[in-house]
Structure formats: structure tokens, C-alpha cells
Amino acid sequence: MVLRIIRAFITVVVGCMLLFSSGMASQRSITELRTIDLQCENLTNPLGLDKLTPRFSWRLLAGDRGLMQQAYEIRVATDSMQLVEGKGNIWTSGKTMTDQSTYVPYDGPRLQTATKYYWQVRVYDNFGRISPWSDVAYWRMGLLNATDWKAEWIKQDPDLQTAEVTNPIFRHEFKSRKTIKSATAYVTSFGFYEAFINGQRIGDAYFTPGWTSYANRLQYQVYDVTTLVSSGNNAIGVMLGFGWYKSPLGWGARFNSEIKDREMALLFQLQLVYSDGSTEIIGSDERWKQHVGAIQHAEIYDGETNDARKEPKRWMMPGFNAAAWKPVMLAHHGKNMLVASESEPVRRREALKPREISQTAEGDWLIDFGQNMTGYVVVNVAGRRGDSIVVEHAEILDQQGNFYTTNLRTAKSKNVYVLAGDGEEQFYPHFTFHGFRYIRIKGLSAAPKVSDLTAFALYSDMGETGTFTSSHPLINQLQKNIVWGQKGNFLDVPTDCPQRDERLGWTGDAQVFGSTAAFNMNVHRFFVKWLKDLSLDQLENGSVPYVIPHVLDDSVSSGAAGWADAATIIPWQMYMAYGDKQILIDQYESMKGWVNYMNNQSTDFLWKPGSRQTADWLHYTPQHFLDAAAKSAFTSSHLIAQSFFAHSTSLLVKTAGLLGKQEDVVRYSDLLEQVRKAFVAEYVTSNGNLISESQTAYVLGLNFDLIPAEQVPGAVKRLVQNIEDYGGHLTTGFLGTPYLCSVLARYGHIDVAYKLLMNERYPSWLYPVTKGATTIWERWDGIRPDGTFQNPDMNSFNHYAYGAIGDWMYTTIAGIQSDSIAVGYKKSVIKPIPGGGLTFAKATLNTYYGQLVSDWRLTGEEFQLDVVIPPNTSSSIHLPATHAAQVTEGGKPIANRDDLHAVRVVGKETIIQVGAGSYRFTVKESAK
Ligand code: BGC
User: Fold this and answer.
1) Which of 450, 334, 452 is nearest to 382 (CA)?
2) How far is CA 788 from CA 499, 626, 668, 746, in A?
3) Which of 226, 323, 721, 764 is packed most tightly, with the most Cβ within 10 A?
4) In the prediction, which pLDDT does 610 show?
5) Per-residue H/E/C for 316-351
6) Average pLDDT value for residue range 445-474
């Protein structure tokens, strides 16, 4: 009884406090307020930052509806114990009144090189609570000055190299005389490195130091290797491979011919801190030794040769007799181009076992892993010394079931393993990767067992953020294919494809897929890094190369409309998805450079590019000359160029506005007006017809707001008519496809958009799914309806571009969008539009504030929507109801509620503003 009275009293007091502190929810539950997921520069406990004002982010945790942060307090110290005791802060933010919980910049004394900092945060909320101080998080600064590098660049003596044996191994021994408190390794190389201490691999990242514009910058990685170093004797071993630095790149004859003069080199610095506080640096220098190891030769396209007989036994261990090894040579690269790593580490992710093992007529073994992917296969094998096995890779089997590699063009994608003959051996390549679903193994004396083969997917480990599911199995498979396409092609840079002699950072592909990518995974840092290389490789005149890093030839390979616009489009996509203005600040000059380039190339604001254009790449093409309508799938490359000229300019205007660059706002707004006028004068007839009667032409004109308002209805009609003329099919290529369904939805033709999405016949998104695709194909008809393959010169089965429909699936089917002002989902818009016969759809998205969920189902006339809105955010919920009285939340009417705000009916929608929390809305007799 007494307890009950006390409880009632507390409830009343807390209730009063709540009413007092905010005018919000009456139905909220009171839970403890905490802060979790502390991130510094969007990383958990990063090692090696070179930003002097790193930014902090955290999430609030509590189950209350309407939870908002009202203030934060951060403290930073160099000693974690002292921090917890609230002592020894080098900086504290003090109580700062704001609801900002992302990208709060450090503002204390100058951060010191190679120093570890600890930090905590606590927050105050709108219910008057203070969270406890968070768990301690940390970050370590990188080497901030070139002079902090005491190690020297080392390289192989070229005399030790032959055409067949190109890869060096380096080793060095050192003694630690005292007890080690901590050991930190700073490592980079020209070429790939894999490094070991006492035989144990340093870190779990692959293809380090990553791919950047090598002429301008090279990343180094920082590792905590305390547990690898022992007291007494220690050995460092490092293997180098060509990597992206020295592998021939580009299709056919290859483009980067200068690589023959390039030499791989290593820079390795180990900083030991002893328990008595003294320190010692062990660095690469002329005392290190070199030899050749098992890996004879490896390059990106052709694969790796590994002769296990050549591996000096225990060469990575202390005490190894290196008398026969030669001293290394010093290399003279300097240290000024070194930057702390921004790459999301490429890691081994999914492990797949064979789904089927069969023998070919020639006696080779054919293995199907059931999933097109990027990575490699680990093979366990036993045999005689000197026996060799060959592992080849393919994406697909031909109509007769044969291993098919013609579409890899000149890429051999083949690994050769020579056995040492000492029992069970394990092989996998170290300095190459493959795009494959099938492998063929030659040289095995007996059938391989399932347990002997494991395929590992390798990709930038960005963390999956989004999921999408629906009542339609083929759409669900499409989503899986989109995600696997992303995994297969986000390998340190966004590549077009992972298998043939290309695998390059094609700008156009990246921009069409950027916003879809940002739903599926956290691509924030991935694109921040790549965009920096884009600006560095941008030409003097502002033109942007086809591929980044730029490994092609300047004269023929830049300035393609829709490709070069990656310079403006991707920064904007990332800003919208993650709310990080810094991307716009960093990329601003590059964005402007590209717009200026187009302007400089144009005559009277009309840009008709002279350079090679890729136009609406791989749009539908007629199979037959009688296919008269097919000519209407072609879009003038000049019309496309003008459309993107306008689009990039409009993004620049918005960016200039956000960054407070008023002069530029005026200047580029004027330019935009002229560019639009020129578009209309040149490409739009007085009835709203475009000179290219294609879906892409109308989609671009409408999506980029280039068609005058009075002509829009006519243009929309033409677009819908065109789709009908093609029997309800899309005909768009890379550039029209991403916007097709959203333009149809925007102009009231959601039914047509769904029709396109649900279409299972070629050309359509689901057609490849019906053909068993497990990734997105480069072409709508990689496998033609008659079962034959498209032209092998351009027929990848793992190209993510057409997966750009994923954005529409998240934003329109599931209805998750960010508010366009409170970007990065600080405020979300949940606006699902059911259709296409779907009875349910659900998407989840891990934002920087927490998980956002939109989950709807249709039962007869009843529409039910479950949403979860993360703490410290708000949302605008759009429901298909023409009267608020049709709607309930949690089984109760929505009128006069403290937790539901500003209910209004606009057209066929009821719109409700909500704060954080979980809600269930039900609409009776929903308006469809
Ligand atoms: C690539 C594409 C790219 C295109 C542009 C191709 O070879 O694979 O994805 O965008 O070239 O020309």
C-alpha cells in the first residue's frame, strides 16, 4: 500500500515535470536516458586521424516518445582514468544548448601527433533529465608532420626481379628490452602490402593502403599491435604486390603504360612505449633484408601465382637465418603526400560454401557458389611437391553449362598454386580479387570436398544500414541483387564491375547509384575519400575524368555528361543522406570547377560537348529493324549534356546558398536561368515535345525542372505514351533509369511506375531476376530472352547502375525520405505509396540518430503503418486518408493528442507530425 502511494506520488511529480519541461507526450514511458555509439569522424575509436578538429557524434537511447536532446557536454583527456574521475580534461565543451548530436567539432588545444585521446559525452533532454557520462571512447591522432616519420622508404633491388618473379618480401628483427605498454604500427606502401609481426598478420584489412590518386596522396594505416609484440626478439615480415599502383589497368591494351617505371616500396614505422614511459621507434631502413617468397607475381586482372616451394620456412619469425637475404635499397618518395587512411577497410565478409561440385568432360572441377560476388576462394589441398593447381573464375555458365569467361575480355582472372607437398596446404590469393560465382579447378587428383573450398566476399566494410522487404518474392530478390552488386563493386573505390579488364572508378555509374548505396550501407566515408581523389584528379580546366582515380588518358577520357557530374551530384547525395555539410565545403571548388567548365565550353549557354560522350549508356536497343518504335529509345547526347549542365548548376546554387556564398548564389542562379532557357529554345517544341522522343529525354527534362510549367502536362503525357508504345516497358539507359519511376510518381502516374517495376519481361528490372540473376547486370539483356548472351565485349553480370531503382523502393514503396531542410534524417518524411499489388513492404534504415522503420501492410481496405522514429529526430507521416477521422494510432483517434501534431489533410493524404518513438497508424478505407 505504502509502496503504491509512493509510486503514485512519483508518477504525479514526474508527470508535472514532464508537462513543465515540454508540451509533448502524455503517454510516454519514463526510461533511463543514455548516450551510445560514440563516433569520432564517423568511426568507432579510430586510430590515425589527421584532422585537427575531429568531430564527435553520438546517439541518444531512451524509449520515450518525443525525446529530444536539449544540450550536450563533451570532455576530452589524454588519460582514460582521469577522464572518468572528471579530472585532467584537455577540453570540455561545457553545457552547450543545442539538439545537435552529430559532427560536433573538437574545439580544444591543438591536438598532438601520434597521441591517444579519450572522450565522453552526456546529454540533457526535453524531459529535464541528464544522462550519465557515456562509456569512454577514444581516437588516436596519426603522424601529423612529415618529420614524424623516422622510418625510410625501402624497395627491392631491381636485380632480384625477373618477369615471372616480381614480388619482394622484406624482414627485420628487433629486440624489445623492457616490458611493452603499447605498440603502434604506421604502415604504407606503393603497391599493396600485407604485414606481420612474429608471424601474425597486422590488422584484418585487405588491399592496403587503398586506392587514391597516387600522384597526389597516399594513405597510411595505423594499427594497435601491442598484443603482437613480445619482450625479447621480434620479427617483422612484409609482402608487397603490384596492387592498383603497378598493375596494368584499363581495357584492351591498358592505359597506364607509365607503370613499367614504377617500383613498389614500403614505409613501416613501429612505435613502442615501454611501461617505464620510455619510447623507441623501429622503422624500415637499409638494415632491412629482402628476398622473394611464395607469391611470384600478382596483378589485378590476371591473378596470382603462388609457389609454396619458394616460401622460406618461418621467415616471419624471430631467429630465422636470413644470411642468404640481401639488403634492401632505399627509395626516395618523400613523406609529404602521406595522409591518414580514410578508406573503409576492405575485409573478408560472407563465407560461402559450394552449392554444387561437378566434373567437366576434360576432367576439371566446376564449382558453383550460388552467388555472383567479389573476392576469392580459399582452397585446401594436399598433393605432391611441385604439383600445381589452377583456379579460374567465371560469373556464368553458357547455355550448354560450360564455364564461360569470354565476357572477362582480356582479364585472365586465374590463380596458379604450386604445392610444397608437405601435407594439407591452404591457398588463396593475397594481391588480387575476382568477380565470380563459379570456379574451375584444374590439376586436382581427386574430387574436392565441400569442406575444402570456401569463397569469401571482400568489400569495403561499411556496415549495412538498410533493409527492404515486401510481399513480392522477385522484388525481394531484386533488392538482394542490388545489395550484392554494391558489395561486389564497393572495393575501396566505386567500380563499374569487378571481373573483366576494367574494375575502375567510373564516375557515371557511381553517381546513378549513389543514393541507393546510401540506403543499403554507410557509404559516407567511402565517398568522402573518393570525392577527394575526384577533386585531385580533376583537370586544370575543371573537366572531370571518366574514372577516378584517373588512370586513363587525359585527351580522350573526361567531360562526359552524366559522368563528370559525379562532381556535383554525389556531394549533394551524401549531404542529403548524412547531413554532413563538410562534404559540401570540401567539394565546393570541385563542383564549381565542373560547372565553370561546362559554361566555358558552351555557346550562348548551350553546351554541345565535343569530347566523347557516353550519353544514355546501354539504353534499350532494337533487336529488329521492324521495331519501329525503338528509335524512340535513343536520346541526343547534346540534350543530355544540357540537362546535366542545368542539374549541376542547380546543385551548385543550392550548395552556395547553404555555405553562405551569396555572390555565387546570384551568379549561378543567373547561369541556371540561361541554361534552362537555352534548353527550352533548342530542345522543347511549343507543345512540350522534346526533340528526342525518348523516355530518358522526358525523364531528365521533367526531373531537372527544365520544361516550362505550361508544357509539363504535355511532356508527361508523351512520357507515359512512350512507355505504352513499348508495351509497358522501360527503354532507359544509365542516365534515365534512376529517375524514371520517381518522375512518374511525381506527376501522378504511380500505377505506371509500379507497372514498370513489376514487369518481368525484357527490358525490365525483374527480367534478369527471372533468369536467375544474383546481382544486377550491366545490360537489360545480358542473357537475351532466347538464352544467348549479349556481346561479350560489354556484358558484365555485376554492374550496379540499374540497381538505382533501390532508391525508389526505399523512398516511395516503403516511403523513407529525409526532410530536404533538416537533412540526414534529423527530420524524416514517411510517405509510403502502396501499389503494384503489394500487400506489405518494410524498410529499415540505421541513421546517425538510430533506426528508422517504415512498415506497412494492406488488409482489404485497411492500411496499417508501423513506424519507428529515432530519438532526437522528428518525422512527418503521410497516410493515405482523406479524412483524419479514418485514422487511428495505437488504436485511438488521432485528434487532440499531445504526441501527434499539426494533423492536416492535403488532397488524398493525412499528414501528421511526430517526435521520436514507435507508432502504429491504421487507416480505415484508405484512399489509394
Ligand atoms: C563501363 C561502364 C561505364 C562506361 C562508360 C564501360 O566500359 O563498364 O560502366 O560507365 O564504360 O563509357
Assistant:
1) 452
2) 20, 21, 50, 37
3) 764
4) 84
5) CCCCCCCCCCEECEECCCCCCCEEECCCCCEEEEEE
6) 97
Nearest CA-CA partner of 455 in 377, 533, 349: 377
Catalytic residues, by residue number, are 502, 778
What value, to the nearest 5°, has the Cα angle with vertex 823 and ends 811 and 524?
85
Ligand 1 centre distance from Cα of residue 502 (Å): 9
Helices (H), 759-811: 766-770, 805-808
Summarised one tens digit per residue, pLDDT across range 19-37 is 333 334 334 455 799 999 9
Cβ contact 311:260 at 8 Å: no
Which whole number is the average pLDDT over 747-768? 97
Say how far apart CA 550 and CA 563 lie, in whole Å.
13
User: What confidence category does residue 628 fall into, taking pLDDT thresholds of 50, 70 and 90?
Assistant: low
CA–CA gap between residue 580 and residue 524 (Å, rounded): 9
Query: pLDDT class for 631, splitting at 50, 70, 90?
Result: low
Closest CA relative to residue 697, chosen from 635, 741, 739: 635
What is the rounded average pLDDT of the residues 183-202? 98
Atom of ligand 1 nearest to the CA of 614: 12
Instruction: Please enumerate, as own/partner, the contacts of 741-746 that have beta carbons within 8 Å and a separation of 24 or more.
Output: 741/805, 741/808, 741/812, 742/703, 742/807, 742/808, 742/811, 742/812, 743/698, 743/699, 743/702, 743/703, 743/719, 744/719, 744/720, 745/808, 745/812, 745/833, 746/702
| Percent residues over pLDDT 90 in the chain | 88
* Per-residue CA distances from 541 to 283, 593, 594, 600, 667 (Å): 41, 7, 8, 9, 19
Confidence of residue 445 (pLDDT cuts 50, 70, 90): confident
pLDDT at 159: 85
Rounded to the nearest angstrom, the distance between the alpha carbon of 648 and the centre of ligand 1 is 21
User: What letter represents residue 584's amino acid?
Assistant: L
Give the SS3 label for residue 80.
helix
The reply to whether ligand 1 has any atom less than 6 angstroms from the CB of 41 is no
Residues 6+ apart with CB under 8 A from 333: 153, 190, 265, 267
pLDDT for position 30: 52
Q: Where are the beta strands (DSSP E) in 461-503?
A: 466-470, 490-491, 493-494
pLDDT tens sequence across 210-250: 999 999 999 999 999 999 999 999 999 999 999 999 999 98
**183 pLDDT more than 50:** yes
Helix (H) or strand (E) holding 703: helix 695-703
d(CA 728, CA 723): 5
Establish whether residue 501 lines the binding site of ligand 1, counting it when its CB lies within 6 angstroms of any ligand atom.
Answer: no
Number of neighbours of residue 475 by Cβ within 10 angstroms: 23
Tell whether the model's pLDDT for residue 74 goes beyond 60. yes
Task: Please identify, by atom number, the ligand 1 atom nearest to the C-alpha of residue 734.
Answer: 10
What is the pLDDT averaged over residues 331-349? 96
Q: Which atom of ligand 1 is nearest to the CA of 794?
A: 7
Task: Match 575519400 to its residue by C-alpha cell.
Answer: 529
Find the 341 Cα to ligand 1 centroid distance in Å.
28
One-letter amino acid at 81 equals M
Q: Tell me: the pLDDT tens digits for 614-626?
A: 999 999 886 654 5
Supply the residue whose CA is at minimum distance from atom 1 of ligand 1. 496
Specify which residues 155 forms β-bridges with: 265, 329
Chain position carrying cell 548530436: 101
Q: What pLDDT does residue 627 have?
A: 56
In this predicted structure, what is the pLDDT of residue 728?
A: 92
User: What residues pair up with 380 in beta bridges, in sequence order?
Assistant: 426
Amino acid at position 298, single letter: A
496 CA from centroid of ligand 1 (Å): 7
Q: Are 384 and 273 in contact (CB under 8 A)?
A: no
Mean pLDDT for the chain overall: 93
Q: Given a cut of 90, is residue 555 above it in pLDDT?
A: no
**Which residues sit opposite 194 in a β-bridge?**
239
Collapse the DSSP code of 354 into the 3-class scheme (helix H, G, I; strand E, B; otherwise coil) and give the result: coil
